[in-house]
Amino acid sequence: MQKRTTSRDVARLAGVSQATVSYVFTGKDTISAPTRDRVLRAAAELNYQPNLAARSMRTSRTGRLAVVMTVSSLNPRELLLGATEAASEAGYVIEVVYLPGGPDERAARLAQLVSSSQYEGILSFSPIPVSPASADAEPGATVVLSLSEFDDDMHVTGEFTDARPIAEMMERLVQLGHRRFVHITGALDFPSAISRRDEYLAAVERLGVESLGVIEGDWSAETGYRIAQALPDTAPPFALIAANDLVATGAMRAAIQRGWHIPSDMSVTGWDDAGQSAYLVPSLTTVVQDRQTLGANAARRLIAAVRREPVPAPATGLQHIVWRESTAAPSS
């Protein structure tokens, strides 16, 4: 059986004392940033995992963080992957706790979690009815960090409502020679759908191009297919700005069935970089959202609050366009 890596091993590799390793993983704020980084790099190289039970007995700190989710329908894989990796690097484990019911039930369940002292910190990606993380909290108290990246139904409300990539895609398409555009929206009870629609309309006016319509959709491939089937035969050549990759995929199938060529008759863009989008024929130009980095940054903010350290800078550059085969110059 392979010998378990100990804090002594980490200390030897990092060139520090065993006590320094312990201080790093219990969040003691007297350790300099270069020393902390050296210890964490050594721990990662040795795959060191601190003994949380022993830590809890020595320090009254559990080494546990919680991410609370208000609904179970969202697939939070990338958010949680980023948060978990960031927490692990700092010597914590993360557990996911779903808050059931309406606002009152969620508030009561959250109050139970805070008072239980099971977790050093609790992170929510959507607003919850508690005081935010604060350096004024009593030492040892559970820190709660409530963000505004999503609403109660996990509709995007924060960083990812930035629709500027729509304008960037349209500018590039105009440079390629496109003068006619169509936009199929997402469901307009989503802030992100409204933001993308408004960015599209503003770009149409600013660029002086023709809009064949803004057609309300519901994020589904079925809607993209139905709307593309209903477009007039005189629509091509044009560029379709779809609210997401599913809408774009449905529209692409309808276009091919109508005998339109992609991208010369209909260039098309999506949003989300869904798993299949790079493998469509033609592959789909789309917008990548880096949810893993968002999750990691949120976890680091929580850990900084728990440890009473300076708040890390917010993550930037979380969205970018991937240009693929579905966009090109229009047919003459």
Automatic annotation (TrEMBL):
GO terms for molecular function: DNA-binding transcription factor activity; transcription cis-regulatory region binding. The keyword Nucleotidyltransferase does not apply. Pfam families: LacI, Peripla_BP_3. Residues 5-59 form the HTH lacI-type domain. It comes from the Bacteria. Keywords: DNA-binding, Transcription, Transcription regulation. CDD domains: HTH_LacI. InterPro entries: HTH_LacI, LacI/GalR-like_sensor, Lambda_DNA-bd_dom_sf, Peripla_BP_I. This is Lactose operon repressor. It comes from Microbacterium hydrocarbonoxydans. The lineage of its organism: Bacteria, Bacillati, Actinomycetota, Actinomycetes, Micrococcales. The gene is lacI_7.
